[in-house]
Write a structure and sequence with these properties.
Order of helices and strands of chain A: EHEEEEHEEEHHEEEHEHHHHHEEEEHHH
Structural class of chain A: alpha+beta
Shape of chain B: globular
Strand content of chain A: 15-25%
Strand content of chain B: 35-45%
Shape of chain A: globular
Distance between the termini of chain A: 52 Å
Strand order of the largest sheet of chain B: 1-2-5
Structural class of chain B: mainly beta
Largest sheet of chain A: 8 strands, mixed
Number of helices of chain A: 13
Radius of gyration of chain B: 13 Å
Helix content of chain B: 10-25%
Helix content of chain A: 25-40%
Distance between the termini of chain B: 25 Å
Largest interface: A-B, 26 and 23 residues
Radius of gyration of chain A: 22 Å
Oligomer: heterodimer
Largest sheet of chain B: 3 strands, antiparallel
Chain lengths: 368, 97
């Protein structure tokens, strides 16, 4: 018997109800300020029905169509990242008593999310951030707590935007692991499969019918259509890793630095970037202080400040640091790659810098 | 609920001795307040502590003494360079960090 089931569009509210009853905060794609973003949803009607997105370098636009689909668009503006690695969060608080003794208290935002509609690239990005925050000698208990509680429903891609290059990295268009349930939207619903015991329990609870052979075939055709739609790519990673490292003095770094504004947009939109800074927020009366972690960017001048010196003063060094870290040294550090080919850095770069073009320019001339 | 193994959470230490080595260089000798933690605390040559100054922030400072220390005191020799080390220079013997 096939392990695929069919979830009709009209049963989406039952799915949402399941998570509500179990005390989850439900995060799903929804249209807000002319963008498709993850936000709290109450009902299936809050999904981006009929919306499609158009993305190209420094360009993003959503359009409402007559199509009766909730997932006809390609990619949300932001990934799942802010739910697990929050933009700004208190790590601990300290109180000082009259004798000057300090009492440290842990802060944890232990939120329990059910995320609906995670694209395969973003799933892979979660796996990469797990390496950074959890599968390490030192774990971040905040990330870990939210991660362990998270219920993930993946949405396979049936389309892509013009900045996507996930296929060349092996991260799309189909989710192969890392989800509790995965779905592919076809005409009037979704072909779904479970990826965990929690996912199986959900399918059982909803009493879904097995998908027909025709439905699973249609789902497969829709996902496979992305191979024809996607045109951007980078060379095999092993080649990229070697070429970037061997070409630290390539003139392309100077060239991109002339265009780069060092705004850090790419790092904020990236689903794997994890750089952060820690800040102190003392109370006005001086009795206590809160220690805060906040997203930072390697494009910021202060990010390389150590021992009274700036180590990457020129934009050229900052761009080179970002690209070589993502596509080369990341592997030495975390035993995984640093990019999933979602193309957000290309869409949200205000001066249209395309990471695939920068990489290809260097790899093409590599003689190492 | 306290979640275990939180690498971010600091541990309190008391300044056993504060030594002025030079006008802008000083050494603090520290002892962790929690006995259990103190007994387990070990370090290797080249390791550093992230030292927190109340209400100001943290800085990475190398440990300078012998790792086979037997008095459960570890030392940091610090040069005044930035905002945090400047604040640390104001500390005194008997204070907590």
């Amino acid at each position: 018997m096939s392990h695929f089931y069919f979830l009709p569009h009209k049963r989406l509210d039952d799915l949402i109800g399941y998570f509500k009853a179990k005390g989850y905060e439900i995060k799903a794609p929804t249209v807000s300020e002319e963008s498709i973003v993850y936000d709290d949803i109450e009902q299936a009607a809050d999904l981006p029905w009929g919306y499609i997105d158009e993305q190209s370098p420094a360009h993003y636009k959503v359009t409402k169509t007559a199509e009766d689909k909730a997932f006809a668009w390609s990619l949300t503006v932001q990934s799942v990242k802010p739910m697990l690695f929050e933009e700004k969060e208190a790590l601990w608080q300290v109180k000082r008593d009259s004798q000057g003794k300090l009492k440290f208290e842990q802060c944890i935002n232990a939120r329990k999310y059910a995320v609906l509609g995670v694209r395969p690239c973003d799933l892979r990005a979660i796996e990469i951030q797990d390496r950074v925050f959890v599968e390490n000698a030192y774990q971040d208990v905040r990330y870990k707590t939210r991660r362990e509680q998270m219920f993930i429903i993946a949405a396979n891609c049936t389309t892509c935007h013009s900045n996507c290059f996930c296929i060349s990295l092996g991260d799309g268009p189909q989710a192969d692991k890392g989800f509790d349930m995965a779905m592919t939207e076809i005409d009037d619903g979704f072909v779904v499969e479970s990826g965990s015991d929690d996912g199986r329990a959900l399918i059982e609870e909803l009493q879904l019918n097995p998908a027909t052979g025709q439905q699973t075939h249609l789902a497969e055709v829709k996902v496979n259509s992305v191979y024809q739609k996607q045109h951007k790519s980078i060379p095999p990673l092993a080649q990229v890793e070697k070429a970037l490292f061997a070409n630290h003095d390539h003139p392309q770094w100077e060239d991109v630095a002339k265009r780069c504004l060092s705004c850090g947009s790419c790092t904020q939109a990236c689903p794997t970037c994890f750089c952060h800074t820690e800040k102190e927020q003392p109370s006005l009366d001086g009795d206590n202080s809160t220690h805060i972690r906040e997203w930072d960017s390697c494009f910021g001048l202060d990010h390389s400040y150590t021992h009274g010196e700036l180590y990457r003063e020129k934009p050229k060094y900052r761009y080179r640091q970002w690209l070589t870290h993502k596509f080369s040294t990341w592997r030495d550090q975390f035993r995984t790659k640093g990019c999933v080919g979602c193309g957000r850095c290309v869409t949200w770069c205000p001066v249209s810098i395309d990471v695939t073009e920068e990489i290809n320019a260097i790899v093409k001339e590599d003689k190492s | 609920m306290i979640y275990p193994q939180d690498a971010y959470l600091p541990l309190q230490a008391k300044i056993i001795e504060f030594i002025e080595d030079a006008p802008d260089i000083f050494t603090i000798r520290l002892r962790l307040s929690d006995e259990k933690v103190r007994q387990k605390y070990r370090f290797q040559p080249g390791q550093f502590n992230m030292i927190y100054l109340y209400g100001v922030g943290e800085a990475a400072i190398s440990i300078v003494n012998d790792r086979d220390f037997n008095d459960e005191i570890f030392e940091h020799t610090i040069q005044v360079v930035g905002r945090i080390t400047k604040g640390m220079h104001q500390l005194q013997q008997g204070q907590y960090s």
